[in-house]
Design brief:
Structural class: alpha/beta
Number of domains: 1
Mean pLDDT: 97
Distance between the termini: 45 Å
CATH architecture: 3-Layer(aba) Sandwich
Number of helices: 8
Radius of gyration: 17 Å
Oligomer: single chain
Shape: globular
Order of helices and strands: EHEHEHEHEHEHHHE
Bound molecules: nicotinamide-adenine-dinucleotide
Number of strands: 7
Helix content: 40-55%
Strand content: 5-15%
């Protein structure tokens, strides 16, 4: 029997190393029969991403350079993935960046250019990618787009600051894309994950406290891991979620449901 995304062609953006949530998602999609393309941002991580690509079992994995701030790279990465895979059915967007000085401290001190940069990279890049994958998904008769959010989009998390705004914008972009792309049977959803120890998480001051807090106050009283996020991503990318769009699904051991 085939996997639940057998034969689907997936472009996964946001793998930096083996701890990346995007890597857990890529692995899961691959295990369930998808043919995956990966991207890397900058030469610093290229070797690691190429090595990881070699671990995927489902055929040769195209590995393409992509800085989401670079229009030419956006065009080339989407075209290159579509060429190599024979189309695109799935887009995974797991990208975020905020300047160190705009994370931690007072929200009041976030700079204008730090705000613009964080939103450009972490939020607007989803729209910029969606525009480029749209023709491929239209040709395929539909598709699924999944991005990564955090509860700070809905509630104030002291210190998360500019990334909280970026995640609010991201979840809003998900809803607008869902409306525009729905007639082509393209579904657009976000996963709101609990804290997971990754490279990006290391840049957030007080991340350890966020994890402790989440464990203490989540209904399940435990942390979550990247594989649990990947399972939910697999669901959203599959036909099991064929009527789910414009949604933000929490994978956070229930933390978002509490007010303590
Ligand atoms: P990560 O550091 O492994 O991934 C972040 C990725 O963003 C990296 O691959 C990095 O190269 C990429 N990136 C940053 N700027 C880029 C640019 N200009 N162009 C292209 N790529 C760029 O960390 P992660 O925790 O796996 O983060 C993935 C997503 O999950 C992010 O959106 C993050 O906010 C979100 N998220 C993480 C957690 C967590 O606790 N780790 C919780 C909720 C949501």
């Amino acid at each position: 029997m085939g996997g639940i995304v057998e034969g689907k062609r997936a472009l996964v953006v946001g793998v930096a190393n083996k701890r990346s949530i995007a890597w857990a998602i890529a692995r899961r999609l691959d295990e369930e029969g998808a043919h995956v393309a990966l991207t890397f941002q900058g030469e610093r991580v290229e070797k690691d991403v190429r090595k990881l690509a070699g671990e995927l079992g489902n055929g040769p994995v195209p590995v393409l350079p992509l800085d989401v701030m670079d229009d030419a790279q956006l065009d080339a990465a989407v075209a290159g993935a579509a060429d190599a895979l024979g189309g695109i059915d799935i887009l995974v967007h797991a990208v975020a960046f905020g300047k160190v000085e705009d994370l931690g401290g007072r929200f009041m001190d976030v700079s204008d250019d730090g705000f613009q940069l964080a939103l450009d990279i972490s939020s607007w890049s989803l729209k910029r990618l969606a525009v480029r994958v749209e023709p491929h998904m239209r040709t395929a008769g539909g598709g699924a787009i999944v991005t990564m959010s955090y509860v700070a989009a809905e509630r104030a998390v002291p210190g998360y600051n500019v990334m909280g705004i970026a995640k609010s914008a991201l979840e809003s972009i998900v809803r607008y894309l869902a409306w525009d792309m729905g007639p082509d049977n393209v579904r657009v959803n976000a996963l709101s994950a609990g804290p997971v120890r990754t490279l990006a998480a290391r840049g957030i001051p007080g991340f350890g406290d966020m994890v402790d807090n989440a464990i203490e106050r989540s209904p399940l009283r435990r942390p979550i891991d990247a594989d649990e996020v990947a399972d939910a991503a697999l669901f959203l990318c599959s036909d099991l979620a064929r009527a789910v769009t414009g949604e933000t699904l929490h994978v956070d051991a229930g933390y978002h449901a509490m007010a303590i």
